[in-house]
Amino acid sequence: MLDIAEFLWGVVAALVGAGWFVLLLIRDRNSASAERSSALIKQLHEIDKLVIDNPEIQKYLSLNATKEEAYFCTPEVLHDDDFYKAKPFVYWNLSMFDEILSVAAAFKSGPGILAPPVLELADWQGYMKRKFRHPLYRSILKKEGDIFGAALRNFWSANEASIEATADAHTW
Questions:
Q1: Could you give the dihedral angle defined by the CA atoms of residues 95, 79, 51 and 172, in that order, rounded to the nearest 10 degrees?
Q2: In this predicted model, what pLDDT tens digit does every residue of 98-157 receive, in sequence order?
Q3: Cys staple from 139: which of 72, 75, 82, 99, with CB 3.0 to 4.6 Å?
Q4: Do residues 169 and 66 lie in contact, with contact meaning Cβ atoms separated by under 8 Å?
Q5: From the centroid of its chain, how far is CA 161?
C-alpha cells in the first residue's frame, strides 16, 4: 500500500515534469518563431537585392503604377521586356505573402500554447495591402489568384475593396 509521502512525491514529480514539458514547448515555439522571422527577413533582403541588381524592375513597376489592371493583360505589354522581369518579381512577393498568411492561419486554428507566436501579422497585412494597390498585383490576384493558397485568396477577398485605391508611383 502506498503511503501518503510516496503519493505526494509522485504528484510533485508529475507536476515538475509537466512544468518542464510546458517550458520546453514555449522555448521551442519561440525558437521556431524566431527562425521563421529570420527566414522571412532573409527573403525580403533577397527581394531587395534583386531590385538593386535589376533596377528596371522597380522602374517598370513605378512607371506603370497608375495603369489600369487590364493593361497587364493586353498584347502591348507582351512587347515590353521589363514586364517579363516584373511579373515573376510580383509572383515572388505574392508567394511570400501567401506563406505568411498560410502559416498565420494554421496557427490560429491550433491550440494556443502549442502554436508559435505569429509574426507581426498586422504589420505584414498593412505591407501587403500597400503592395496590392499596384495594378499588376491586383491583375494577377484577380486573373490568376487560384494559383495561390486559400489564405492569400481569403485575405484578398476580405480586403479587395480597401485595396482598390490607385497606387502612387513613389510609395506603393
A1: -70
A2: 998 988 877 666 555 555 555 678 888 999 999 999 999 999 999 999 999 999 999 999
A3: 72
A4: yes
A5: 20
